[in-house]
Structure formats: structure tokens, C-alpha cells
Amino acid sequence: MGNEFVYEDITIPEMSMPELLHESVAKHNGKPAMTFAGVETTYSELLDRVQRVAKGLKIRGVSRGDHVALMLPNCPQYPISYYATLYLGAVVVQVNPMYQPDELQHVLSDADVKLLIVLDDLQPVYEAIKSETGVKEVISVSLTTASFFDELAQEELIEDGPVIINPKQDAAVIQYTGGTTGRSKGAVLTHFNIVANTLQSSATQTDQQNVGNEKVLTVIPLFHVYGMTSAMSLTFYRGANMLLLPRFDVEQVVAMIETEKPTSFPGVPTMYMALLQYFQRKPFDLSSLSVFTSGSAPLPVEVIKKVNGLTTSPVLEGFGLSEASPVTHRNPLDGMQKTGSIGVPIPNTKSKIVDIATGDVDLPVGEVGELVVAGPQIMKGYYKLPDETRNAIRDGWLYTGDLAKVDEDGYFFIVGRKKEMIIASGFNVYPIEVEGVIYKIPGVQEAAVIGVPDAYRGETVKAFVVKDKDALLREEDIESYCKEKLASYKVPRAIEFLEELPKTAVGKILKRELVRTEKTK
Fold this sequence. Notes:
The protein is of the alpha/beta class.
């Protein structure tokens, strides 16, 4: 193991997220914390608005332990709302703005959300299901005109500092992920979990001399755990400037790279593919960027090689999951990088491969098993799901459900997924949820959903459907119905009608046969 790379452990203080923000403001108060639509917000201005909005939320009844949902794109109001909620000892519930009413209803109800902060354009999605939730109040945000949120930001400064928080016990965020039943489950992340992962991630950066002068191009969504930590929290901790874009548009991203000269770009595979395709048509200057990271889904090796050919700074793959706040592994900036590998465990993190059957036997180098991890970033548990928590966290080890192997140098490689989860454009898709929607369509007898390779999205959703005998059902009927009920990345991109689905002797659908047949086409 002569090439083994091991990160040194670091000291992680027991502190809350607002305390971490206060530290950054004290060090960097006059520097820009974020830039949106050409307007800069300094660190002192950020803290001022966080405190004012916290006061506004407090007046409207938000107190310690209450759950506040954020349904916003990347915009200044997101970090302000996020930290204002934490300032009160309340808990942030992060909501995907692409959710359709049924999906939103599940999260708002399951998480016992008291107050919702939502983009005005998305309010109709909430209005469709508001009577089925326990939400007491809604605060609208506009990116173009004055809104209820702006009234909050005019409140007097909060008299006291942040609420006293027990970092290792008090929840900061409920991050929704997928469950074995197909319904999302909330990973409860404490203040200490996120503070730890922020400091762990920072320790993997080699450019410590440039702290306070970095610019982070932030188009990965902040509602996603990857964006939350690797963009927002890490940016503020390092005194950097977060360049916010509300959605990925390749021309807007290229324009920002050329005009703002960002130093860091945390991305997902589909973004790198789009940038590569654009560059091949119209080259642009990437020289300002010294850090490229990729997460959320595997980045195809061929794409990595092509992107690396455009710049002197390689794209570094990492690995994480919602239950780990999220980062657990990454390829080292100042060590050997292995294309196709997720790298090595980050500081203060242990990782190993165990047998799939029991999870009790440690496997040797090169053998495929389940990836398990341990560290200070591991969640407290799933919200209101003690059985699932006990299954996921055993003796301090988080069982990821991912199949992996480790080589002789200690580098880990993901080789598959134990779950049936599909990752489309960096987003998790759970087949049973899509199947549940398809089964509601008149004329559908049976349905099964799998992931199939996609050159752009990494994976995409394919549905196999058996129609009722006399049903006049077309592919476009299924697609249009799914578009009404599901976020766009969950909608099947391919639909195939079959006379029957392969089954076991007891009638269980054999998805592995569908996958096998698909590979032979």
C-alpha cells in the first residue's frame, strides 16, 4: 500500500450553525458573502438580515424545535431563511421546488411543518394540498417584486443572540431522502453533524492561503444536501463569495465563469456534460477555476477524461449521502487521484466494506460488498422512524446501501446499488413511487420501473406497463399523467408495453429480468 493516502483528523468544536456563521462574520464582515443578479451582500449585511428575519419569524410564533420548510430556488432569501430558522433553535425542512402537490403534501405532513417559506410562483402547488397539512402560516418570496418576506427583513434586530443550542442533540435540518417503502424519509441532521461536515470538507481543500478570496459558483441547488454543505455552509465558513444562480442554464453558467471568474465549481455529472458539449462548440476561459468537484451521481470516466483535458485542475469525484450531511469520501486535491474512484474517507471518517448478507463481516481488498461509514457527520436518525434508524445505523456505522470495493491504496469504488434507487441528473428516484402513480392511470394492469443508462442524465427512468385487455392507452397518456403528479426528473423517459411482466412462482415481479433484457437490446 505504498500509494495509500490518509487525511489527518481535525479538531471539531461543539458549536451551532449560527455560532459558526458569527465566527465568519467577525473575520470577513466587509467582504461579499453572496452575489445574486449582480447585487452583492456582505457578511455583515447577511447577519443583519438573518437576525431581522429571525425576529419576524419569532413574532409569527416560530420557537425552539418548530419545523420551518423552505421551498425556494437558489437566491439570497434561501441562506437568510435557513440561518434565521436555526437562530431560533427551530429546524429547517428542505423542500425540492420541483415537487408536485402529492410529494409536497407528504413532506409537509410527515415533517410536522409549522411554517412554509415559498417562492410566490410555487404557491399554487401548496394551495392544492394546504388543507391536508398542518402548516399554520406561509411566507411568500419574490425574486422580482416586494413580498411578505421583505416585510420580515424590515423587522427590528432581535434583542438577543442565537438561542442556546445543544449541538450534538438539537436538530438543525430534516433532509428528505428515499425509503424502502418508496416514500421519502427525513434524515435528522444535528448542528454538530453539519458543522463537522463543513470543517471536514474544508480540511480537504489545499488552497488554505486563498481563504476569504474564493468565489464559489453555486448552481447546485441549496435544498439538496450537497449544495447545503459543499456550497453554502463551506462557502460561508471559508469567508468566500457564493455566486448564486437559481437554475442551471449552460449559457448563464458560462457567462458567469467568464465575467465573475469563480475559483470553485461544485457540480453534478449532467452539468459537466452540458459544459463539455458547450465548450466543444464554443470554447470559453476556465482558467480562474482551481477546484472542480462532482457529486450526487457517478460521473462517467470518459466525461471526466474529456473535461480534465480542458483544464489544469482535475474534476475530483467524491461521495456522500443525506444521512451523512453528506460528504464521506473524496479524491484528494494534493494526493493521487483515481479516475472512477470516489476517493478516500475525509478527515475523522472511517469506512469499510462488509458482506451484503449480514453486514457483520469485513471484506478484504477488491471484494464487493456494502459500503459502511462512521464519523461525526452521521445523522441522528430518521424522523419518527425508529426501526429504519436501527437498521441504517448499527454500532455507530451507517449502512449506505451502496455496493462498493476498496483497492490496495485505500481508494473506494462504487460498483452498484443495493437499493433499486435510480439517480437521474443527480436526483434520487425511487421506482415504487413512480409505479404508484402509474397504477392510478385507468387501463393500467401492472407496472414496473427500472433505471436505464442515459448518456446525459447518467440514468433515466423506464416504465414497463401491462394494459388492461381493452384499454386504449398510449405512451403519451402515461407520460402526461406522470408529469402532473411527479417532479420532471421522476417522469419515465421511456415507456414499453408488455403482454406480461416476468414473475417468481409466488407472483413477485422480477425486475432483475427486466434489467437483464434491457441490457441485451
